[in-house]
Description:
By secondary structure, the protein is mainly alpha-helical. The protein is built from 11 helices and 4 strands, in the order H-H-E-H-E-E-E-H-H-H-H-H-H-H-H. A hairpin with a 7-residue loop joins strand 3 and strand 4. Helix 6 packs antiparallel against helix 7, helix 8 packs across helix 11 and helix 9 packs antiparallel against helix 11.
Amino acid sequence: MHVNAIRAVGLFVGVSVLAVVVGWLCGAEKGIQVSVALVACAGILVYLFGNSLALRAMRARPVSEIEHPELYRLVRELATAARQPMPRLYLSPVRSPNAFATGSSPRRAALCCTTGLLRALNERELRGVLAHELAHIRAHDTLISSVAATLTALITALTAVSFLIPLGDSEETDLPNLLGGLMMVFLAPLAAMVVYFGVGRAREFRADERAAEITGDPLGLADALTKLESGNRAYPLPKERALLAASHLMTTNPFPGGVGRLFAAHPPVEERVRRLRELRRKWDMR
């Protein structure tokens, strides 16, 4: 918890300083003003809405136990086995099969499934995915992930406004700022670096292993990951800024190719499946 809190603060301060420097390069005093305004907005967003940005991006809504009793049963059983609080459950009306968790602490956590996930997986596989997300909640991974998502949204927003800042002091030119346009090219990979260094890929391996311990079935999660990757290729999410910023929260990368690969904070599914199968073999040899 303390490690992730320190990483979250450090990530926010570092990106804020970088945003101000970029604003100065793009438009001197006016660029700094825009950057400071964006940083202030980002701070407010992190504090007030950091836990819900991904839910909003995925158009998720809370679901009751009456609507999805089986989903509640599975999550309650897994949360009890993991000895952690029951998260709030949400459902996203998306065909792409995936799930994610968000929240600054286990007691404020939310777990969201897409409708595509509930359709694509059987109960054994679904238990593996739900346990994986509960593992992220238990490890407080959702704290740094929520901050990284907000900061990534800030950087991608900066790419959208940078070209509006006129080059030099002339207020009459109608030409886009050439430097601002170039910054759009460089800031998208920078946003991806924030995700990569702020979140990292090792956490997915840890969550996979913890999920296998909770369910006692590494192969169930391995089969689920394979289905999720196929489903993401068949029904990729639209490459919108908000969705790109939240993609690292998902169980698997929801963008199979193109610019979405820049924002992938996940190890290759093949590697994750291989590790889970090896874990099963180690258990069998005991």
